[in-house]
Write a structure and sequence with these properties.
There is one protein chain. The protein is of the alpha+beta class and 383 residues long. It has 2 domains: 219 residues, Jelly Rolls; 120 residues, Jelly Rolls, CATH 2.60.120. It is built from 9 helices and 25 strands.
């Protein structure tokens, strides 16, 4: 049975750093603990790769409750591509979700790393995507002045950076960066090629292009070691040195270049929709927020959409479900609409959900106000 709206179970994933208490706090848990599961992957259709850790079957894949039992969201969508994806299917009939959405919480500063730009990945590696990332800062731990490392504030140049990485010269590596302050409510993008590291004590939404390509420059942090096979994309340091942007950026340069100013798309007496990330930054995905303070019916974008409740609580239900009649017989419309109906979703902060492309409108009833983050495919998925 197809569902226009689906609530997603929690999906914690192991990584090679510690955190996660902020995710527990977002969910309203009374006991919040840091561990080796500092990320929650929302609607993920890719498996996590944790080199050096004990393999866990289907780790990272989002699961959903169905009449047949618990199944991978990826399989559910694949069986009903038209309903869930709409027109966002490649011309050859294949599809790939063009982003990965996470809730991330850091108890420690992460290891310094960089990702290839799409241009580099295509030209040098024969891969379709690099890995641009975007952050939506949700909160910071008490007593923390949140920050990230982003770009070289004191560039070492290629050969000196090679020496620093080879010898793991921690003092020289730290000297290449200054803390870039961030705060809740801000949006940041991290271009391919820029060295970066998330500081300790930050809870955020992280949205990224669909690639696992990463160059890790710092091999150990607070006893957490990056395995050798996870450092250089299997290519060696000399190759990976060409990934980096060695431009020297001051903190002010980085703020101007990488801090994104959201813009209001629509505002009514009941709700406001803002664009956080659009096609000027990446063709792979859009990120929007929907703030609702009174009951409202929202027109859907007719794309497969993943959502997270960032604050507050609400109820959601689909109002209208279409059957894309230009490709399907008219007599199927009522049947699909019935199948698209689902019970009302009761959502609170931290909860995540799916909106199928076939949903035309959905009703939101906030409980004192709610902020929802919505992520959906960009132009790239239609090519």
């Amino acid at each position: 049975m197809k569902k226009g709206l689906m609530k997603l179970p929690r999906n914690r994933v192991r990584r090679n750093y510690r955190g996660g208490a902020g995710i527990d706090r977002l969910h309203g848990e009374t006991v919040c603990r840091d561990n080796d599961q500092p990320e929650e992957w929302i609607g993920s259709m890719v498996e996590a790769v944790n080199l050096g850790m004990e393999p866990v079957k289907q780790e990272g894949l989002a699961m959903v409750e169905t009449e047949e039992g618990v199944r991978c969201l990826r399989d559910v969508v694949d069986e009903e591509q038209k309903f869930y994806l709409g027109e966002s299917i490649h011309r050859d009939g294949t599809w790939q979700l063009s982003f990965l959405l996470k809730i991330l919480d850091s108890a420690m500063r992460l290891h310094v790393q960089a990702h290839p730009s799409t241009q580099f990945a295509v030209r040098e590696m024969g891969r379709p995507y690099g890995k641009l990332e975007c952050y939506y800062i949700l909160s910071a731990r008490e007593g923390i002045d949140p920050y990230i490392r982003l770009g070289f504030q004191h560039t070492p140049g290629r050969e000196e950076w090679k020496r620093i990485v080879e010898t793991q010269d921690r003092e020289k590596m730290d000297g290449c960066f200054e803390k870039i302050p961030v705060k809740p409510g801000e949006v940041w993008y991290i271009p391919g090629g820029m060295p970066h590291a998330i500081g300790e004590g930050i809870t955020m939404l992280e949205i990224m292009e669909p690639s696992d390509l990463v160059v890790r420059c710092e091999f150990e942090r607070e006893g957490v070691v990056v395995p050798e096979e996870a450092r250089y994309m299997g290519r060696g340091l000399e190759f990976c040195l060409d990934v980096f942007d060695y431009t020297e950026y001051s903190r002010e340069d980085i703020i101007r270049k990488c801090r994104v100013t959201p813009r209001v798309l629509e505002r009514t007496a009941a709700w406001e929709r803002r664009r956080l990330v659009g096609e000027s930054l990446t063709p792979c995905f859009f990120v929007e927020t929907l703030n609702v303070w009174e009951e409202a019916v929202i027109t859907h974008n007719n794309r497969f959409t993943l959502g997270v409740v960032c604050s507050g609580a609400c109820e959601m239900e689909p109002e209208g479900v279409c059957s894309f009649p230009e490709r399907e017989a008219k007599e199927k419309e009522k049947e699909q609409a019935a199948e698209g109906k689902t019970e009302v979703l009761k959502l609170k902060a931290g909860d995540s959900f799916v909106i199928a492309a076939a949903v035309e409108t959905y009703r939101i009833v906030p409980k004192g106000g709610a902020e929802l983050a919505l992520v959906y495919p960009g132009k790239d998925m239609e090519s």
